[in-house]
Amino acid sequence: MADQPQKEQLLALRDRIDALDADIGKLISERARCAQQVADVKNASGDGEVLYYRPEREAQVLRKAMERNQGPLSDEEMARLFREIMSACLALEQPIKVAYLGPEGTFTQQAALKHFGASAVTKPFSAIDEVFREVEAGAVNYGVVPVENSTEGVVSHTLDNFMNSNLKICGEVELRVHHNLVVSSVTNVNSISRIYSHGQSLAQCRKWLDAHYPKAERIAVSSNAEAARRIRGEWNAAAIAPTQAAELYELEIIADKIEDQPDNSTRFLIIGAEEVEPSGDDKTSILVAMRNQPGALHNLLEPFHRNEIDLTRVETRPSRTGVWTYVFFVDFNGHQKDPVVRETLDEVSARVADLKVLGAYPKAVL
């Protein structure tokens, strides 16, 4: 009977957990009813098209959840739990439809679910320009596209689409990217002679592949999920793919976290039709067209420096409309409605051929 006190302690703790679960359930239900009432108020206002999802409001709620957190759960885990509660409550108002660069099992799908939660309706598309078209046509509410990787740099197709699109950037997602080497049930692990993956993933795992499979052929395909799908019928092939793709296609992970840089991450953009109000901690992205002439870059950047606006990214792309005209994509901290940002943009606009605000949006929360 020596273990009787321990059993009694466990029973008492389990009873306490059951009581807390009941309280949590009641509070979540009460929150959901409030969300429904918010939808009723919005629908009754008669102000035209109703916006159920407000990116700035979502970001504020998540930040408050992290500020209130007293542990032992991490801030990120606490925000993730609140994200799913908000996603489920928002679905009671109106399920959010989201297009993403597919197929299923890609990192872009993970980014979509991380940002919108599991209650969002996600739809895969095979190309970035298709995601833009779906959002522009109103077939979905938002799109999710990759824009840059910490190891391999920018995704040029995404930047190019902004040149001819009126869509706005409504948010961003930062996703820590871990790569796995996966095989199918028919793979002879000792005879792997070809490895499939997206070109960027192959590049991000170059040193690991050189060390472990120096003679294997590396074959670039459209996505890591496509690589995972393809190897199911090849006995001598493996793929580099995320855990989600391995689970989706019922593959075995034989080596995990094979990326060369342990802090490898990818940034994704949320694109939509409407502008986003300030959340209190925002970024703004602009597109600037200018002639390639001495001092051009200095003229563009000097007002930001003088007004102490922190630039987080400057990327150059050749323009499609002029041989000697270049386009700069610039990200900086602050919202376009902040007085100092507004004055700076007015000054920059007078110095360049064209300036287009791509969007002002909340910084990635988690």
CATH class of the domain at 95-177 and 265-272 equals Alpha Beta
Q: What is the radius of gyration?
A: 24 Å
How many angstroms separate the termini? Answer: 48 Å
How many strands appear in the DSSP assignment?
Answer: 15
Describe the structure.
Strands 1, 2, 3, 4, 5 and 11 form a six-stranded mixed beta sheet that branches. Strands 8-7-9-6-10 form a five-stranded mixed beta sheet. Among the domains are: 95-177 and 265-272, Periplasmic binding protein-like II (D-Maltodextrin-Binding Protein, domain 2), CATH 3.40.190; 180-255, Periplasmic binding protein-like II (D-Maltodextrin-Binding Protein, domain 2), CATH 3.40.190.10; 282-362, Alpha-Beta Plaits (2-Layer Sandwich), CATH 3.30.70. It has twelve helices and 15 strands. Helices cover 42% and strands 26% of the residues. It has 366 residues and is α/β, with parallel strands linked by helices. Helix 1 crosses helix 3, helix 2 (55-68) packs antiparallel against helix 3 (75-93) and helix 11 runs antiparallel to helix 12 (339-351). It is globular, with a radius of gyration of 24 Å. The protein has helices at residues 4-45, 55-68, 75-93, 107-116, 128-137, 156-163, 199-204, 206-212, 224-230, 243-248, 296-306, 339-351, and strands spanning 97-101, 121-125, 142-149, 153-154, 168-176, 180-183, 194-198, 217-221, 237-241, 252-255, 265-272, 282-291, 311-318, 325-333, 354-362. The termini are far apart.
